[in-house]
Design a protein that fits this description.
The chain is of the alpha+beta class and about 140 residues long. The protein has three helices and six strands, in the order H-H-E-E-H-E-E-E-E. It has one domain: Nuclear Transport Factor 2, Chain: A (Roll). The protein has a six-stranded mixed β-sheet with strand order 2-1-6-5-4-3.
Length: about 140
């Protein structure tokens, strides 16, 4: 009898673990889709309207300039760096995910985005707000 009870407890614990992992995997896919659809495509098309859909209004980027000095830009400033009229259609953008870590409604992502001329390593902090994943913070360095 003890073996049967233990077996059912074990099955219950394992199913809860795998159900939880399934949800985490779904969240990772949702994050990846948001980043590819809006952040990656924002770079490809140099279109700030795409960033509107994934960068939270309070979003900021922290980076080091060529002299190693810390620079901080808000969403409005960042979006001003992009103009669809000036897009270089010869660039072939690629985004590679190194990891996506999810903890309930928080996530962290490390990725590489670039093309044949330049590239970046980006670290994002994301929050799931009202059922949608938003990038709330970015640190970045060029390659």
């Amino acid at each position: 009898m003890k073996k049967i009870v233990f077996f059912f407890i074990l099955i219950s614990l394992l199913s809860n673990f795998f159900l939880g992992q399934d949800q985490i995997d779904k969240e990772k896919e949702a994050i990846k889709k948001a980043i590819m659809s809006y952040y990656h495509e924002g770079h490809v098309k140099s279109d700030p309207k795409l960033y509107e859909k994934v960068l939270h209004d309070e979003w900021k980027i922290f980076y080091l300039d060529k002299k190693g000095q810390l620079k901080i830009a808000d969403k409005k400033t960042y979006m001003s760096w992009y103009d669809p009229k000036k897009v270089d259609k010869t660039l072939q953008w690629k985004t590679e995910f190194f990891y996506i870590d999810v903890s309930k409604y928080l996530a962290s992502v490390k990725l590489k985005i670039g093309n044949q001329k330049f590239g970046y390593i980006d670290y994002f902090n994301l929050m799931k707000i009202d059922g949608k994943w938003w990038i709330v913070h970015k640190i970045s360095h060029s390659l």
